[in-house]
Amino acid sequence: MSRHETSPTTVQPASNHRPNACCFCWCCCCSCSWNEDRERAWRASRETKLERIPNCEACAKPTPEEVQGWAQSFDKLMKSPAGRNVFREFLRTEYSEENMLFWLACEELKTECNKQTIDEKARMIYEDYISILSPKEVSLDSRVREVINRKMQEPSSHTFDDAQLQIYTLMHRDSYPRFLNSAIYKSLLQTVSHSSSES
């Protein structure tokens, strides 16, 4: 969601600290495949405290069978690091990448055991994705927001479970059908199928 508020956090240029994506990532979200100036400007306008989530998850190139499986089940897509990378790239074209970023942040929070770390990450997730002042605010109903506000008084690794499920359902019902019909998915399916037939 677009907001006029700007983050007080100083934004470091993305190219200074990020390795060349093409050196370790096969997928279509490598920085070389995009107009980097346009990408940096868009990212700077949406900077948040949880920018530690990498641009791509490290993963192997998917097999044709795996890519085809993504069309059979949204669960299969979301359980695959490669699938999440490609789906996230599609969400970026629709300016709704925050849905995947929020889901990933919630997954990361669930792995934490240290109380102080949980408190810190929960507050960062709240500021980045739940707060109405955030440029990356995700779309949640009032009931879920009330639940989160209560749970934030004593955050746990499952504070955002209801919200995560709601966003997962939103991506499944809204974005996933368009993803399957997108040029990004069809092009990847054609590429991996062609590579497989040549080998």
TrEMBL record:
The keyword Acetylation does not apply. It is a lipid-anchor. One of its GO terms (cellular component) is membrane. Residues 73-189 form the RGS domain. The keyword Aminoacyl-tRNA synthetase does not apply. It comes from the Eukaryota. Pfam families: RGS (PF00615). It is found in: Cytoplasm; Membrane; Nucleus. SMART domains: RGS (SM00315). Keywords: Cytoplasm, Glycoprotein, Lipoprotein, Membrane, Nucleus, Palmitate, Signal transduction inhibitor, Ubl conjugation. GO terms for biological process: G protein-coupled receptor signaling pathway; negative regulation of signal transduction. Transmembrane segments: none annotated. PANTHER family: REGULATOR OF G PROTEIN SIGNALING, REGULATOR OF G-PROTEIN SIGNALING 19. Inhibits signal transduction by increasing the GTPase activity of G protein alpha subunits thereby driving them into their inactive GDP-bound form. Binds selectively to G(z)-alpha and G(alpha)-i2 subunits, accelerates their GTPase activity and regulates their signaling activities. The G(z)-alpha activity is inhibited by the phosphorylation and palmitoylation of the G-protein. Negatively regulates mu-opioid receptor-mediated activation of the G-proteins. Forms a complex with G(alpha)z/i2 subunits and mu-opioid receptors; the formation of this complex results in mu-opioid receptor desensitization. Interacts with OPRM1. This is Regulator of G-protein signaling 20. It comes from Lonchura striata (white-rumped munia). The lineage of its organism: Eukaryota, Metazoa, Chordata, Craniata, Vertebrata. The gene is RGS19.
